[in-house]
Specification:
8-stranded antiparallel β-barrel, globular
Length: 126
């Protein structure tokens, strides 16, 4: 018996391409002020989303995942902290529109070490 091939999912709207997000998570900050928290540049092609981020306690990080038609990102990430620790995990990021029109992502994350939590990143306008 043959199975019919599933049609490809509708491409996600390009919500994230060219946007920069800044973390609001205190645990990744290295001092007071916006310059001391991680920021990342996001890219999107159809449903594929990826980002590079650094700042604060994050020396360098990468994220890669998929974006659903509802704007929810399901991704994996890896980062090297300034103390040399390597942190990896998965996250599901839900977009929320702020009163000023910027995007905020509510990130439900779980790390390879078993820890988990919620963080927020907000769009930076230049």
């Amino acid at each position: 018996m043959t199975h019919a091939a599933r049609p490809p999912a509708a491409p996600a709207p390009s919500l994230y391409d060219g946007l920069t997000f800044r973390s609001t998570a205190a645990e990744t900050a290295s001092g007071p002020g916006a310059a001391q928290v991680p920021a990342g540049d996001y890219h999107q092609h159809r449903d594929l989303v990826w980002a590079e981020f650094s700042g604060g306690r994050v020396r360098h990080g990468r994220l890669v995942g998929r974006c659903g038609s509802d704007g929810v990102i399901t991704a994996a990430y890896c980062q090297v902290l300034t103390d040399g620790e390597v942190v990896s995990g998965q996250c599901v990021s839900h977009p929320e529109r702020l009163a000023d029109g910027r995007l905020r992502l509510r990130e439900e994350w779980s790390r390879a070490d078993g820890s988990h939590g919620t963080s927020y990143i907000e769009e930076v306008r230049t």
